[in-house]
Amino acid sequence: xxxxxxxxxxxxxxxxxxxxxxxxxxxIWINGDIDNLLIEKLYVNLLEMNDQSxxxxxxxxxxxxGDMYEGVVATDIMKTxxxxxxxxxxxxxxxxxxxxxxxxxxxIIHSNTCLMMHPPALWGCGKVPNIQNHIDQINKTTDKLxxxxxxxxxxxxxxDYWKKLMNEEKDVYFSSEEALKLGLAHKVIGEDEHRDNRYxxxx
Length: 203
Known about the structure:
Structural class: alpha/beta
Shape: globular
Radius of gyration: 18 Å
Largest sheet: 7 strands, mixed
Distance between the termini: 39 Å
Number of helices: 7
Order of helices and strands: HEHEHEHEEHHEHE
Number of domains: 1
CATH class: Alpha Beta
C-alpha cells in the first residue's frame, strides 16, 4: 500500500513530538535506521542530560541497524558521561542497534525483543587495494567490538566467542533466556514475580 507524502510528514512529525516529550523523562529514543543524524541527537541529548543531573538516562532502542561505525561511536559517546546509562531494547536491537544496546551500563529487554548480531557487510566497489583497505579496517573494528562485547558481559562470553560469531556468514539471534545467560541483558521486563516490578519506570 502506497503512503502519500502528507501521511509521511504526519508520521515524522508525530515521531519528533514523541522524541521531544520523552526527553523530559530522561529518555532518548533511537527509533529507525542508525545514521549520523540519529547519533548526533543521541550525543547532544546525552551531554545535556548529564549536565542537568547525575540521575540515570534511558536509551530506548528500536532499530534494524544501519551504519556500523555510527553504532560503535555511540558506545564511545556513552562512556563520556558520568550518569548511568540504561539501554532498553524494544521490539528489536539488530546489528548497529545491537551494538548501541550493548553500550548500556544496565541493559534491559522484553521477553520477545529481537536481539541479533552478524558479520559486517562491505558495500560499494572500487580499486582492489581500496577494497582490501576497507576489509582491513572492518576487521580491526570487529576485533575491537569483540573485546568490548566480552567486557560488557562481565566474563560470561569471551573475545573468541564474538570473533567467531562475526566471522560466520549468518545472522545470530538471541532469545531472552540466552541474553540473560550470556550477560547481554541484565533484566527482562515483565518477568518479575511481583507485578509492581514489571513496569518500565522501575528500571
